[in-house]
Amino acid sequence: MKLSEFDYYLPDRLIAQKPLDNRSSSKMLVLDKKTGQIEHKIFKDILEYVNRGDCLVLNDTRVIPARLFGVRKDTNAPIELLLLKRKDINTWETLVKPGKKARTGVEIVFGNGELTGTINEVLENGNRVIKFKYNDVFEEVLEKLGHMPLPPYITEKLEDKERYQTVYSKNNGSAAAPTAGLHFTQELLEKLKDNGVEVAFVTLHVGLGTFRPVKTENVLEHEMHSEYYNIDKQEADKINNVRQSGGRVIAVGTTSTRTLEAACNEQGDVIAGDAWTDIFIYPGYKFKVIDGLITNFHLPKSTLLMLISALAGRENVLNAYKVAVESEYRFFSFGDAMIIK
After folding, report:
1. Please, is 126 exposed, middle or buried when counting C-beta atoms within 10 Å of its C-beta (0-12, 13-18, 19+)?
2. What is the pTM of this model?
3. If you count Cβ atoms within 10 Å of the first and of the last residue's Cβ in the chain, which end, N or C, has fewer?
């Protein structure tokens, strides 16, 4: 399976730089995974495609202000870091820029000294393990000093940080938003519940590996990133009961999809608990839990594009993307939506 088989043409002008004023007013491309048939709708029309007895599964992770700007204590040289993975209460794996002089033992100062960090280890992949010192609560310090880590293709400033959070975000820990969920409003979720749709939540903390490009021409040689997930028993029971009753499980986003497919047995029963997953879903994969997927439009040659190709077929997906470009859909994090039914 070649990387070039998952490429497509996208003009830069179609990369959405800002969210729409109304979350649910984005366009929505409807793709039938069996026939490849395409319809054009508005996202609030999702009510037509998720039915009584179905289960909608959302990722309730919350993005932390994971980008920090500081200076080296010894030279006062500026340094930037991105929190990637929490190792323990005070220690994080981070991405540091510039990395050349960020050696073990270097101390970094943030703000007026409210937060300091010492580089304890340089990992093989170039990431740094940093131990932090601070007063009070780390999350409160981070809220004061940190910045929202928007994806590199978004170059405009985000005026309202909450627009890079879903309305149901709850559990802090992500370096990026589960962007398919950005289209939902509380009102739309209530309407779905009123229509008899079961709504379940899982948590997967999205890492920056989401944006890491695949560099191997042989897709199977790509090393997948690992992310932490948690599923409460009550939520697992909701999903399993719907499956046993003959309803569909519709995941909101690739993160919810990866969580469900990682946390199930061979029969497709979702097992409550927490773990790390590096599941890599590409064409040929047999889905055990999900029947449908609500998602955004993904980067060319990305693992996310491979995942939806596994569900709907590569040719169907690439044709849908071609139609979306021709129809001036908005792409990526703040862009329009697609439902695969």
Report:
1. exposed
2. 0.90
3. N
